[in-house]
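Lab notebook: predicted structure, single chain.

Context: the supervisor wants predicted structures on file for every construct in the current expression panel, including those that have not yet been purified. This is the next one on the list. No modifications to the sequence; it matches the entry in the shared construct table.
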Amino acid sequence: MQSAVKAQLLLLCFVFLVVETSGRDNGPGGGVAQRLEVTGGYPSWSPDGNKLLFYAPGVGGKPDLFVQSKDGTVRQLTQTDAREDEPTWSPDGKSIAFVSDRDGNPEIYVMDADGSNQRRLTGHGLRDVHPRFLPGGQRILFNRENREEGSSGAEIWEMTLRGDGLRRIARDSQALLTYASPSPRDGSLLHVRWFRVSGGPPNTEIFLMEADGTNPRQLTQHSGADGWPAWSPDGKRICFASDRSGALELYLMNPEGQEVIRLTTDGAQGGYRRPAWSPDGSRIVTNRGESEIFVVAVP
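Prediction complete. Output recorded below exactly as produced.
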């Protein structure tokens, strides 16, 4: 492990233990944010709340995956010269799904929570990304690139933990479908639709559909970017990032797209993204910019 990574992880060992005792008022919704003194991406708590999973620079400066416990123990889970990215916990905390290009193309992998038993689940030849476990932990949602006629280019699929039982959940000829997130209550799927806009950047909106891909309904409607939706543990609230204020900030809403509360106000310093809830629903861990990690208290 490189010395720079060791220094970052030692800082995280300290801050992760004291993060709940420090903070500042960070938004009209009453959120309190605390920056962790470590750089990394895609942070998320384990289902028992005792570990923090994230990526940080590893071999050759490319991301590897790490997990840090509340007792200060740090474990490096991957160590390759490839990009290891987008880690996500299984509901029981025993497995981690992630994306790796170690075989030359971004594919979905899964491993035990201690980093052992790493195995590839997809071999599509194009991009398979954004994995998420379905409730029960026996199947994984992911995004699959598709260049066939009639597809926008990105679709939502699911498979078993063996990589078989593949099933396409949703496709749209007019929009890219990304970042699917299943409800812990009924499996209904939050997702982001990227609509191409002539002469400008794409417009991204958050939609909700049934677990089988039917009945899509739009939850957000703004000219800019709404994305990275994440269900609260009880399935009653949704955290998401939006630049409707001019910078990427975190917001809360209910499953009908109503009762919107803004959590953060300092997104101009890099923009908040990739929110993930604590198991008790009291906090959200998130990136500001690509590598700063913040914890935001939920009102």
